[in-house]
From TrEMBL:
Compartment(s) of residence: Cytoplasm
Organism expressing this protein natively: Streptomyces subrutilus
Residues the record lists as binding sn-glycerol 3-phosphate: 109, 139, 194, 247, 257-259
Protein's name according to its UniProt entry: Glycerol-3-phosphate dehydrogenase [NAD(P)+]
GO MF term list: glycerol-3-phosphate dehydrogenase (NAD+) activity; glycerol-3-phosphate dehydrogenase (NADP+) activity; NAD binding
Top EC class for this record: oxidoreductase
Domain Glycerol-3-phosphate dehydrogenase NAD-dependent N-terminal: 7-163
Amino acids binding NADPH: 14-15, 35-36, 52, 109, 143, 258, 284
Positions with a binding annotation for substrate: 109, 258-259
UniProt: NAD(+) binding residues: 11-16, 143, 258
Reaction catalysis annotation: sn-glycerol 3-phosphate + NAD(+) = dihydroxyacetone phosphate + NADH + H(+); sn-glycerol 3-phosphate + NADP(+) = dihydroxyacetone phosphate + NADPH + H(+)
Active site as annotated: 194 (proton acceptor)
InterPro entries in the record: 6-PGluconate_DH-like_C_sf, 6PGD_dom2, G3P_DH_NAD-dep, G3P_DH_NAD-dep_C, G3P_DH_NAD-dep_N, NAD(P)-bd_dom_sf
Length: 336
């Protein structure tokens, strides 16, 4: 008899827990790692994560620990679901504990500040594992909807297609349909930049602007994401798939999106400090907009919506002035 696939999930926030549920529903034996004892106890004794997924009953084959070595033990897949800017420090502590030959899986949709590295690059550098053992899960996957077992598709990306297929099997359930992709760069960029565009759409919503504005921002946001992706060697078709358009549409339409909500609060006139104070969870685009703008500069790519978000969020540019400047740029053909 073959043993069940074992997965360790580092991060007991909303997506770490919801993706842990997916893995458990697909038949894996899952151990979540979290920092807080009371949350691990709630998972183990009450089958609940009241802080991040209130009202959701967790499956039996999902347990939690605060001991990173216990989580790592024998894991076929090591899933990373902490805020992107904390990955490097956390992974440095976990790397010596990882099971040999484990596949590292990033759920994170951010770009590291300073280095402008994608999360899989940080994993490769810190855990010292080859790219063929690093995978990414991305797509239109709002955690609360997945935890309610509402149907969704996703992408599992890995340079080694056989590894992507193994992960696909490990997380395939009747409500979660993962597709494989070998374009890791495109998949990660799609996930990180959509958070920035989600902020822009949220700001527009908060300003009371309508669906034409939203449609324009989504489409031109996808155009600038694709431009950056092309310059970085991604497959442009990735951006019309789940990791690009799919995730962009979900994020830019949903009040469940933290990035969208963050933008809406700013657009309504809250200050950055007030907005941060009412945001309990990770809104990756707030920091990553700066790293995406860095990447754009490094690759000589024009990303006007990203620049506008950086100006509003980090330089205090008034939203009406930012909108006027964005619309007032010189006219150009659509495909350039
Ligand atoms: N929530 C969602 O719907 C989705 C989130 N993601 C991505 O997943 C990643 C994680 O997001 P969520 O789980 O939603 O965030 P969250 O804010 O719900 O949870 C973050 C978790 O990380 C922990 N944490 C915070 N700072 C930490 C630190 N310094 N060291 C260790 N742990 C720390 C928190 O205690 C919490 O358990 C992000 O990159 C996000 O973009 C991707 C798809 C869907
Ligand atoms: O990535 C997500 C959905 O796919 C979640 O978006 P937020 O991080 O904006 O909530």
């Amino acid at each position: 008899m073959t043993r069940p696939v074992k997965a360790a999930v580092y991060g007991t926030g909303s997506w770490g827990t919801a993706f842990g549920m997916v893995l458990a529903d697909a038949g894996c034996e899952v151990t979540l790692w979290g920092r807080r004892r009371e949350l691990a106890d709630a998972v183990n004794h009450d089958r609940a994560n009241p802080d991040y997924l209130p009202g959701v009953e967790l499956p039996e084959n999902l347990r939690a620990t605060t001991d990173p070595a216990e989580a790592a033990d024998g894991a076929d897949f090591t899933v990373l679901a902490v805020p992107s800017q904390t990955l490097r420090g956390n992974l440095a502590a976990w790397a010596p504990l990882l099971a040999p030959d484990t596949v590292l899986v990033s759920l994170m949709k951010g770009i590291e500040l300073g280095s402008a590295k994608r999360m899989s690059e940080v994993v490769e550098e810190v855990a010292k594992v080859p790219a063929e053992r690093i995978a990414v899960v991305t797509g239109p996957n709002l955690a609360r909807e997945i935890a309610a077992r509402q149907p969704a598709a996703a992408v599992v990306a890995c340079a080694d297609e056989a590894v992507a297929r193994r992960l696909q099997t490990a997380c395939h359930t009747p409500y979660f349909r993962p597709y494989t992709n070998t374009d890791v760069v495109g998949c990660e960029l799609g996930g990180a930049v959509k958070n920035v565009i989600g902020l822009a759409v949220g700001i527009a919503d908060g300003m009371g602007l309508g669906d034409n504005t939203k449609g324009s921002l989504i489409t031109r946001g996808l155009a600038e994401t694709t431009r950056l992706g092309l310059a970085m060697g991604a497959d442009p078709l990735t951006f019309s798939g789940l990791a690009g358009l799919g995730d962009l549409v979900a994020t830019c339409s949903s009040p469940l999106s933290r990035n969208h909500t963050f933008g809406t609060n700013l657009g309504r006139g809250m200050t950055l400090e007030e907005t941060i104070a009412v945001t309990r969870q990770t809104a990756e685009g707030v920091k990553s907009c700066q790293s995406v703008a860095d990447l754009a500069r490094r690759y000589g790519v024009d990303m006007p919506i990203t620049d506008t978000v950086v100006d509003i969020v980090h330089h205090g540019k008034p939203t009406l002035v930012a909108l006027k400047d964005l619309m007032g740029r010189s006219a150009k053909p659509e495909r350039r």
